[in-house]
Amino acid sequence: MKEPVIRLAGPAVEVPDMLLARDGRAAAQKKLLERYHRPLLFFTQNIPGPVKTSVLIHLGFLEGIRRLEKALEKAGIPILFQKTIEWKTGYEKYYVLDGNALAIKKIACAIEGQDRLGRLYDMDVLAEDGHKISRTDIGLPGRLCLICSQPAQACARSRKHSVPVLVRNVHRVLGDFLMDRVEDALRQGLQGEVDATPKPGLVDRDNPGAHRDMDWHTFARSTDAIVPHLRQMGEKGWDWEGTGEALFAALRPMGAAAEKAMFRATGNVNTHKGIIFSLGLVTSFTLWHLARTGKVESEAVLREIGEAVTPLLERDFARIDRYHPHTHGEVLYVEQGCRGIRGEAMDGFPAVARIALPALRRFRQEGRPDNEAYIQTLLLLLSQVEDTNILSRSDAATLRQAQEEARAVLDRGGAFTPEGIQAVWDLNASFVEKNISPGGCADLLILAIFLEKMEGLGPADR
């Protein structure tokens, strides 16, 4: 079986390191119990082999923190003290909690048994007197082995499974968790945009906007068809060890396969062709950046995309037959010098970096509902972006008018006031009558939603 590639692996640890860490934990736990006289929860992970730290292991650790703190908040158990330790022997977190030790242990065990990722978690709970609460204290059996689902203690004592087998399985669990999160972010981006209602001229849950050949259900089928291909593009980026330009070249046939899947699912209706190009890029380069840095840094990802795609796309533009352009995009480039979504990619998707992402982050901090946040972000984009979908359906004067109308809706509060929402409904009716569809802005919104969701993988520092 192929050995896993451990991205940004920490140093290998030896027995003295583990013994030193164990003694340090015992001393820290004793000190906290003496100081607070409250239950203590100590969280770490069961990571076999000499390498205890890496990008994937850290992402799994952060997810465990999110699950635990969400459960504690739901149960109304305050955190009196918390501290994170990141050393070569693994990631650790200490919590002093103002609650019943048995109730805390039940929460910890529920997280440990939630799924295969949870089975990597080790959440020890100590009562006020230092007594370690066991699973049997709350009526639960011992934990099961990740490999064979037999009692874990028996497998450990007999060394039933070799260290290489354990390492491969643990990293498979972590890798599946990461790619499942990527798929969730993809679906939230694609479905979140089409679900947002009302939108001017675009397909939503209420009506098909300025489109006669598609509706919400068409987009749902298309999303189901292309997401597996976009996930594969993410996997390509995670595994990539070459240059960004070479990664872009490798993605092109994958994008073509996604387009074929889209057309099969929709009966040859073009729902997502543009976003397959841009979201495939963003997904793959986000994972490529994560594998190299351990972080989801959206603006840095977008800059790397611009640097990588520019040489190939410049050659594409140079090959366009100015006398016989074949597509709407080529016509716009020849007649008006408009580079469309390819130009956005070459420039590093500036509208996403400067308009959409900052808006979504701000709305998230303000606690805005997704529906209103997405509509408001779309209006901000529409008020400022040169939407080539509008240009291809009409002309530059119509685009300018659409931008002015979007600004007028924002002046009335946009999606955040009843008056503004009514103005969006009215704008939709106007766009439908004029056959205006800001599909380019919709694609940029999808990219921003995806990136904002992916940023949630890392530390909550925003």
TrEMBL record:
Protein name: Probable 2-(5''-triphosphoribosyl)-3'-dephosphocoenzyme-A synthase
Record-listed E.C. numbers: 2.4.2.52
Family from the record: Belongs to the CitG/MdcB family.
GO annotation terms (biological process): prosthetic group biosynthetic process
Top-level taxon of origin: Bacteria
Listed InterPro entries: CitG, CitX, TriPribosyl-deP-CoA_syn_CitG
Species for this entry: Acidaminococcus fermentans (strain ATCC 25085 / DSM 20731 / CCUG 9996 / CIP 106432 / VR4)
One Pfam family linked to the record: CitG
UniProt feature coiled coil, ranges: none
Key words, A-Z: ATP-binding, Glycosyltransferase, Nucleotide-binding, Nucleotidyltransferase, Transferase
Entry's Gene Ontology molecular function annotations: ATP binding; glycosyltransferase activity; holo-citrate lyase synthase activity; triphosphoribosyl-dephospho-CoA synthase activity
Reactions catalysed: 3'-dephospho-CoA + ATP = 2'-(5''-triphospho-alpha-D-ribosyl)-3'-dephospho-CoA + adenine; apo-[citrate lyase ACP] + 2'-(5''-triphospho-alpha-D-ribosyl)-3'-dephospho-CoA = holo-[citrate lyase ACP] + diphosphate
